[in-house]
Structures are given as C-alpha cells and as structure tokens.
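Batch job 17 of 40 flagged for manual review because the log was empty.
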Amino acid sequence: DKQRMKRLEVNDPVAMRYKGIEQYRKGDYRSAFGYLMKAAELGELEAQYSLAGMYRNGQGVEKDEGMEMYHLEEAAIGGHVSARHNLACLEVINKRHERAVKHWIIA
C-alpha cells in the first residue's frame, strides 16, 4: 500500500523490518536479509535478532557463528530479552558458564 511504500522510502526502520519479515515468509531470504540489515543499521533491535537467526541457519547468507553472536550482542545491548537469553545459551555451549549466568541475570 502507499503508506507502507512511503515509510520504506524514508527509511523507517520498523517498515524495513516488516518488509524483511514479509520477504522471509515468502522464502526470499536474500531480499529479507537486505531489508533486515538496513533496519538493523537504523537501530531496530528485532531486526538485529532476526539477522542473528539468519546467520545461524544460513538463510540468505553463509552460516556464520561470529555474525550470529554480533547481532545477538547488538540486540541484547539494546535490551532485547530473547537475544540476551540466546547469548547465554551460546555461552553454555562454548563452556563459558560464568558469562552465561551473567546474561541470564540481565535477561
């Protein structure tokens, strides 16, 4: 619709995220990645979290644990509770239990 297009044209981060999720649900992971990356660059936390999942699963990008961690950290720093929880889980997998506990306390 026209309203959504206007919001995309002015780089509204929430509109970018919604467009990215729409593309993701259609299976167009490359396009989804582009929209989500732009939203994340504009500070959209849910987009950061979604990008972490795309890097974890290799959807639209090569699997990359480092980039997954980066996007989880960015979302967690901004206050995204699920990102903080997932960081804790990754710390347990990497046998860094003290760091994991700190993440869970913050979450």
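Reviewer: the log was empty due to a logging misconfiguration, but the result itself is present. The mean pLDDT is 94. Unflagging and moving on to job 18.
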